[in-house]
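Hey, sorry to bother you again with one of my protein questions. There's a protein on my desk that I can't quite get my head around. No rush at all, and the record is pasted right below.
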Amino acid sequence: MGTPENGGMGSESPSPGSRSLWLETSGDDLTPRPPLVIDTRAEVAILGAGLTGLWTAYYLLRRTPGLRVVVLERRVAGFGASGRNGGWCSAGFAVSPGAMARRVGPAAAVALHRAMTTTVDEVLRVAADERIAIEAVKGGVLRVARGAGQVPALHRSLATATALGIADGWRLLDAEETRARVRIAGAVAALRSPDCAVLHPGRLVRGLARAVERLGGVIHEETPVVDVVPGPGPQLVTPRAVVRADHVVLAGEAYLTRLRRWHRQLIPVYSLIVATEPLDPGRWASIGWEGREGVASTRLSIDYLCRTADGRICFGGRGAPYHLGSRITDGFDHHPQTHAMLRRMAREWFPELRGVRFTHAWGGPLGVSRDWMPTMSLDRATGIASARGYGGQGVATANLAGRVLTDLLTQTDSELVRLPMVGHRSPDWEPEPLRWLGIRYTQWGLAQADQRAERSGRAPTGRTLAERLGAH
């Protein structure tokens, strides 16, 4: 999905058909691990067996063998966004390089970008070392302009990256060069950047859980966290037992909104995906896309595509409505209108999909902070560490978060702990119903701006209220 992260909490049990393509094809037994039923003690207790929680456990155990690390998960490892995202492991961050430079200065923005580019390679390195078959191809990203109105956004992105000195390997492609990589109806240009791998996130998160256990970590599934008690010896409280620890790590991403103390730190935004059946060689010969680049347009409403290792097209995007009170339920993972829109868009992009079945449709919540800035922090007074607010860029960001939290928890001075999101706290979101009104208006306004641009062939102005509210 642009990636939410997995949470340690949830709602009613999913139906068998609601699993993502990634979990269904992970090759792993999804039978839950035993739940926590008796009180226990840990040095580090982690809420959430998604990528953030598992990367944190992994690096802690690598650094300090024998450390007592306990991970609690409401469902199964990878249930949340870690097993439901769009399959990109990208150097993209929730706040764009240009916006980051304006907030914290060019030097800090460049340092963050460099950290994210190395993070993509770090994910691939660990997967190889741990023999996790994630089907990765580092083909980069193509930001495609489908019509003249989308071209200015490509030029602005390239100009910003060039001014910051981070445009290594970036290249603007004309229509013919774009078609040589992937044939998309209406594509007139594309901006290619190299720092993205398309991978199988279900295999990554499930394999990482096994790696944590090999290192001595303990994972309890079917174990919802109902409260977090801060202070010396912080606690994770579950319906049947309590974990007391030296430190607690909150790695629930969007699902943290279900805890009272963090309810307004994030909103859950639903991102949905559809996937085709595997395409036959003739169709792939017509489409191209041999490099398996991540593909997206410049639409304000967001779209993201990948070609899977088994020859499917996954097409994801926003459009599902925000729900009053930041509600999260399994029923929201399916929004018929949005899934229908995504299937329609996929066929518009690729006319070769006429007659092809769409076999999967899924979705889930991702966490968005009020200022779009992710947070990675440790409060030594309460013993609580947290990483959250990835804004749909979670697959790589979760790995960076795991390494940042490991350095914070082990009191290791490093370049990572000086990155601009470390120690950051975003403003709270507005109370309801103001929150619902503002978010619904922004969702509507961005969709309207996209539709006007498509009708007129002119780029969005950037001056509408919705565009200003959604800028990051």
In short: The radius of gyration is 21 Å. The domain at 1-140+195-429 is CATH 3.50.50.60 (FAD/NAD(P)-binding domain).
